[in-house]
Predict the 3D structure of the following.
Amino acid sequence: DARVTQTPRHKVTEMGQEVTMRCQPILGHNTVFWYRQTMMQGLELLAYFRNRAPLDDSGMPKDRFSAEMPDATLATLKIQPSEPRDSAVYFCASGGDRANYGYTFGSGTRLTVV
Amino acid sequence: DQQVKQNSPSLSVQEGRISILNCDYTNSMFDYFLWYKKYPAEGPTFLISISSIKDKNEDGRFTVFLNKSAKHLSLHIVPSQPGDSAVYFCAASLQDKIIFGKGTRLHILP
């Protein structure tokens, strides 16, 4: 059963520390998304990639967030420095070229910044 | 500015009855509309989609209706079952970028 794998599942860190979240998309999927879920905003799109190239990162705070795909099997989302307002669940999703087939989400990384 | 809006934060429905979840959107350029279901501590899972050129799509107990003139879509679940209790997200795609609403929590009552 193919799945999107996200690590870590939970992360508690102190304000000012660097946080790195990792995502292994489903093999063969060429589109990768990063979303953030908060109570107030629901599911916000942060960034997405196609064939490892960033297509849109307009949803991401540029001064502290960065997203990369070093290779086809790994996507990373980094926050440096982290702030309490970054506390949320971060989801990675992957899929093919067409949105109508839906994208497959990972189980998320729950980040708490204290 | 929310392009996809789910105005009901929660909905309670008796088991066996019809559940109707609603969604409004503002961008007439969206090409597909999707519904996702989410259980606690899990990622959202894809349920059903509809092309912007269709007005209805059915898959088992789930039917999505699209009213383009009103910029409104709805998800019907018939009959509702206990396992349908979850948060439902309405979403819309624009050139394969998916934008989500804030979700509606559905409670199926015994």
